[in-house]
Amino acid sequence: MTENTNVACPVCNKSVQMQDINAHLDNHYASPSKFREKQKPSRSVQDVLYGKTNTHSVSSPKVRKVDETLPSEQTPKRIKSIKKDVRPLAERVRPKTLDDYVGQESLVGKGGIIRNLIERDECPSMILWGNSGVGKTTLARIIAKTTGAHFLEVSATSASVSDCRKIFEESQNLLRLTGKKTIVFLDEVHRFNRAQQDIFLPMVEKGLITLIGATTENPSFRLNSALLSRCSVFTFNVLDKDNVLSILRRAMQIESERKERKLELDESILQHISAICDGDARVALNCLEIALGMLEGGSVSLPDLKKKFARSFSVYDSTGDAHYDTISAFHKSIRGSDVDAALYYLCRMLESGEDPLYVARRMVRIASEDVGLGDNSLLPLASAAFTATQQIGMPEADVVLAHCAAALALAPKNVDVYRAYKRVKSFVASDPEAGRAQIPMHLRNAPTKLMKELGYNKGYKYNPDYKDGRVKQDYLPKPMKDKRFFRIPMDLPVDPDLDADESSVTELQEERRTEKRNDN
């Protein structure tokens, strides 16, 4: 930027040459009364840089007229207080420091990776992945405040490409004028398509902005791989019951101090709220706000609160069953070949508003983990059910999911592959040498003459060249050539709780499997 470049005065908005800006500002502050008579509605430096118009400036004729009719000094404070009161409880009690932050101990607790970055005043571009209400937005704001960076919050549901470009231009201007970097918090980043995500690449790569994206969707599937490779991905866990209770108790304390009187709710109410919110702090605080509102009108009891919430929550919440408990019951019912229970839990999830793709993904896993080699046709079926659910959505996809669930429950089960792969993972994790063992020379690829001269691929026996494909040849590295993982004999016990009634259930399940095979 040259000295002859004109800039806008942050006070009066006049165009002034760069070398004269300081003298121009000094002149105005030396004659404040004269300046007040002529100035336009005042705008802060931030307003000038970010194109905001201060419609409530103290110099605005409209606002001055209102001021003349109200008590001069106390009115602004009272108006400010009223504005704060209308904010939701979740916003009023939002933590402002890491010490007040609850949950995600591995990230922001003592020694947590994000805490260490913040304490070193470092903030790389990052993606925060987790369910709603687990603290993604709160942490982004704490990062911005702690590092002293300029913070802009944008929602991918409403922002356009032109909006983003404008933000980039303003961020670069701010960086040149003040040296202050901008953190752009992009909420629901997965809602941007690939082209929209691409516009962030050069800005992030050059370090002109720090991007903090928040998403409830798996970033591996929903974000551009190029953008993902330039950001650190942090996974946020669902808040447990104790985390939610801590948040509720802190909110009660803050509200008591704000209202200058002690607010008291029975512990059973807080326990109930923490149980039905499904690890979502925002939902829990909204429930607490309802309870406190009822408290203003008199006493509040747990039965009254349950009636109030019964109209607001899904089957998951009103019965107190957690989201993961239901999907676990569904999975275990299929594993146990109980088709009736599997369909029941499927219905509970879908009618409660569960994401059908979440259920479909779990059934793809079940097809390999539990059915496995028992029926190889079930993996293509589960994959097809997932694709169909993506394409047609709910409510039409309910029968597709039920079809797949019933087929999985009725199929013969085989966990040989699942157990074998678990043994391999355990072996590699427990023995550092296992992951670095030398590949046998006769199994190595030899695309070049040099490799062949070094003995690569030497002595390899091509199985189809021998009768029945059988040859004597080692495939595992030499130190572990006798190691076995697949179908290791196991002395499995018989369930002592089985009786005649249980045997009849097993026979019924076998009859249904036979009927299925006959139908095919």
Question: Would you kindly provide a written description of the structure presented here, covering whatever features stand out?
Answer:
Belongs to the AAA ATPase family. RarA/MGS1/WRNIP1 subfamily. Residues 122-239 form the AAA+ ATPase domain. This is DNA replication ATPase. Residues 493-520 are annotated as: Disordered. Residues 509-520 have a biased composition (Basic and acidic residues). There is one protein chain. With 520 residues, the chain is α/β, with parallel strands linked by helices. Among the domains are: 1-60, no CATH class; 104-235, P-loop containing nucleotide triphosphate hydrolases (Rossmann fold, 3-Layer(aba) Sandwich), CATH 3.40.50.300; 241-313, Helicase, Ruva Protein, domain 3; 323-416, Zinc Finger, Delta Prime, domain 3 (Up-down Bundle), CATH 1.20.272.10. 53% of the residues lie in helices and 6% in strands. It contains 27 helices and seven strands. The chain has a five-stranded parallel sheet, sandwiched between helices. Strands 1-2 form a two-stranded antiparallel ribbon. It is globular and about 100 Å long. The model is unreliable at 32-40, 42-46, 48-73, 78-83, 311-315 and 317-321 (pLDDT under 50).
Write the layout of secondary structure elements.
Layout lengths: L5 E3 L6 E3 L3 H10 L1 H7 L6 H6 L10 H8 L5 H12 L3 H4 L12 H4 L4 H7 L6 E4 L6 H12 L2 E6 L5 H18 L3 E6 L6 H5 L2 H5 L3 E7 L3 H4 L2 H5 L2 E4 L5 H19 L7 H10 L4 H16 L5 H9 L4 H5 L3 H13 L3 H13 L4 H16 L6 H15 L4 H14 L5 H15 L18 H5 L46 H20 L1
Parallel strand pairs: 3-6, 3-7, 4-5, 5-6
Antiparallel strand pairs: 1-2
